[in-house]
Amino acid sequence: MEKMSDTNAATPVDGRPVVLRRGTVLTMDDNHTVLPDADVLVVDARIAAVGPSLQVPEGTQEIDASGGIIMPGMIDTHRHMWQTAMRGYGADWTLTQYFVWYYLEHGKAFRPEDIYAGNLLSAWEALEAGVTTTVDWSHGLQTVDHAEAAVDALQEVPGRFVLAYGNIQAGPWEWATDKAVHSFLERRRTGSGDLLGFQLAFDVTGDPAFPERAAFEAARELGLPVTTHAGVWGATNDDGIRLMHENGFMTPETVYVHAATLTTDSYQRIAATGGSISVSTESEQSAGQGYPPTWQVRRYDIPVSLSVDTSGWCSGDLFSAMRTTLGADRSREHLEAHAKGETVTHVHLRAEHVVDWATRGGARALGRDDLGRLEPGVKADLVLIKNDASPVSFPLLNPYGQVAFQAQRGDVHTVIVNGKVVKHEHRLVGVDLAAVRRTVDATVEHLKAQLGEEQWSKGMNPDTPSDEESLNNPYQYTEYKSDTTRGARGSVFDEPGSGR
Ligand SMILES: [Zn+2]
């Protein structure tokens, strides 16, 4: 069925070749070749050709990419998709508050349909932002029914997903050895094709008894990679890495999320065993897992991918991840230099590097050599960034700089996954957003009812620190206090005329 969008360009029909014409192509091949004024031809599920003025098969549908950037679909290696139904709720949370809310107090309140709702919203959200592959770090799977719901949602959305099975309500040595979990994984893997992958997701506490051994053995038996929150301040540390290493469970497909508070010894063990680090800068800066480690791990040559962690507090697009990662890395370099009275004259981390991490970095982490680049033969997962109505879209001088610092999700014009156009002319194709909204609304209503009005409000508005200490500032010559020092949220707006 051929539908017309409101800009009157026909949405490409499934099954017919598509060519994107005259864009700036970031191939992200081994040489990071950039092709100005070039085309990308998609036939079936794969890239058929990349280059200028391509000859295309009869019946090929054309998308005008002029003035835009064609790049590989972005890959997020760690997103707790089930939490998306709580979008923005934890905007002012620390990691401690997150742990209390989800792990101790309210995570159990999520029913299978709530996991479904969060995943469904998150999956569309990812696609809309040009994230064509997302690892669903799904640690709210209290029962197999929850897991079924998680996968049901992912399979309803035309993106590429990896379900990283987890359960924060039980020890990994318990759920990962559960026969019902194994049969779920075997069953849902069968015939699911390459749009759906699986991992096991659990953390290693550093307990010398190493109870997580059973979970690692289960992963090995199932043939699934492990993804683990490693080097998280106050939660996981070098002991966990050492135990994994000494017991032979660090492999090239292992993904270490955050890896922010580790020492040289752990980074060397990760480097030696070939695993990769998933950096969630926006989350780390805000919640306190540790300083985003890119500025130091480059010394160990550890591969990096990017992730958003959770839309429960931060954004769900990799433009933000690229931008904050560049900012954190460069900021730290300047800060370290200034502390020594020195000046950084050349930055290490380039816009090109974070674009690599958002694309090929993710593909490497997932062991998918057929993703993350635009070359003939690889899977056709790609994004066109183009927004003719935006004054930010020109001049296009530095395409990597454009992607990392100028572009945002609203500039994502077209998204193709596995050869299928899933976003076109800035609109998702085939989504019933009203239905998604109803599903999410039902989850929010359920959780509100479970918590009660007071708990709900208290959860979203954590207390501000109680310490009243202020510096003796000789320039503090007015009565003005900023809203961050006034105490309760909203007080600035509650006292008319009491501003400056
Ligand atoms: Zn996480």
Euclidean distance between termini CA atoms: 60 Å
Which structural class best describes the helix and strand composition? alpha/beta
| Helix share bin | 25-40%
- Strand tally is 17
Provide the low-confidence segments as ranges: 1-8, 485-500
The hetero molecules present are: zinc ion
How large a portion of the residues is in β-strands, by DSSP E? Answer: 15-25%
Round the Cα radius of gyration to an integer and report it. Answer: 23 Å
Tell the overall outline.
globular
Biggest beta-sheet profile: 9 strands, mixed
If helices are DSSP runs of H or I spanning 4 or more residues, what is the number of helices?
15
Mean pLDDT: 93
Task: Give a concise summary.
This protein has 500 residues and is an alpha/beta fold. It contains 15 helices and 17 strands.
Question: Would you kindly provide a written description of the structure presented here, covering whatever features stand out?
Answer:
- This protein has 500 residues and is of the alpha/beta class.
- Helices cover 35% and strands 18% of the residues.
- It has helices at 95-106, 112-128, 144-156, 172-175, 179-189, 213-222, 238-246, 264-273, 281-287, 294-297, 318-339, 351-365, 399-406, 433-460, 491-494; strands at residues 18-26, 34-43, 46-51, 61-64, 69-72, 74-79, 131-138, 160-165, 196-201, 226-230, 255-258, 276-279, 304-306, 382-385, 412-417, 420-424, 427-428.
- Strands 1, 2, 3, 4, 5, 14, 15, 16 and 17 form a nine-stranded mixed β-sheet that branches. An eight-stranded parallel β-sheet has the order 6-7-8-9-10-11-12-13.
- Strand 1 and strand 2 form a beta hairpin.
- Helix 7 packs parallel to helix 8 and helix 11 crosses helix 12.
- The radius of gyration is 23 Å and the shape is globular.
- The N and C termini lie far apart (60 Å).
- Residues 1-8 and 485-500 have low confidence and may be disordered.
